[in-house]
Amino acid sequence: MPQPLLELFPASLRAVLEQLPAPVKTTLEEIRVRENRPLEIGYASRYSFVREDGALSERGDEAFVPSSEHCRALLERITHHSVYAVEEELRRGFVTVSGGHRIGLAGRAVLDKGAVAHLKDIAGFNVRVARARVGFGSEVLPELLDFGAKTIAHTLIVSPPQQGKTTLIRDLARCISSGQWHHPSAIGWGSRKVGIVDERSEIAASDKGVPTFDLGPRCDVLDACPKAEGIMMMIRSLSPEVVVVDEIGRTEDAEAIREALHAGVRVLATAHASGLADVFARPVLAGLAADGVFGRFVLLSRAGGKVEHRVVSADEAVREASRRFGRTIGATPRDAPAPSPAVSSAEPVPVTVKTRAMPTIRSPAPASHITAERRDGHD
């Protein structure tokens, strides 16, 4: 666990976490602190309760139980002792701290004209540990290339939460910004100008506007900026060749993505969905898919502690959606057995995808130290 993140916790709670086994610390994904309830962690695609001596247990009655004082101290630390300074974050239900770690909050919602104004009586925290996985993108990027335009195809990365979408999109941005295409036919393409709209401050983990993660030499970041507005700001003033956004799903997101498309900008985005069936069931995503906006879909899943991916073209995605296989609504629990697909007797619903010619991207001649392709395919 990164030391700056560990130091956010009050001393007695920190002492418990410091005693976690070393293999657990290196694979730690979540720390769940709930007032007067057992301390829980997620690691390597598993969940366990944590005893006071740092040992793991499957029994909640053996676990360390954070008190109201622990929760109050943790809230003060993550808000820098000023809840009002992070009022907007409280309204959205999370606070992003230095390093790109997102802390989800649970408590009592305060409403204003039927909308959530902010949270109070906060008694639950989900600390999500952000890590850069350099090299993750090199495994996927060769399947996303548009060889005619010498750049990346419009791509949507899809998975339930905690499958690695943000980690992947971060490393893909680094590869594209560095001109590391990891394909022998792409040697000499050069790097591309990448613009990241980092609404939740997770992709770049910017500190006073400066990214703390390695995103390559030709990358600009709009930190804590709403996606739709940020995409338009990028197009108007920063002339990106590839725009990167995380967790799209609103109508205004789709409209901004279409504007980027018409401006000749490639889009690399993520969305929450358990599979292609969910993509075509969500109106905003289905509209983008049906319009042929995305040339590739990347489906992420976990097998044990490893993240696996499958790349599907736009035509393949439509064919899969039209077959109407049995579909699970929502995310599947990590320990659930793999379902046996059952073909529905219903007639396939025809789905069509509109296609359009994409403009060629022109970039300045790359410097030799940026475009040199590594033979081993790794950084």
From TrEMBL:
Entry-linked InterPro entries: AAA+_ATPase, P-loop_NTPase, Spore_III_AA, Spore_III_AA_AAA+_ATPase
Signal peptide (from-to): none
Renumbered residue ranges of the record's region Disordered: 327-379
Lineage summary: Bacteria, Bacillati, Bacillota, Bacilli, Bacillales
Entry keyword annotation includes Nucleotide-binding: yes
AAA+ ATPase domain boundaries: 151-300
Compositional bias annotation for Low complexity: 341-351
Gene3D superfamilies documented for this protein: P-loop containing nucleotide triphosphate hydrolases
Pfam families: Spore_III_AA
Descriptive protein name: Stage III sporulation protein AA
Domain of life: Bacteria
Species whose genome carries this gene: Cohnella suwonensis
UniProt KW keywords: ATP-binding, Nucleotide-binding
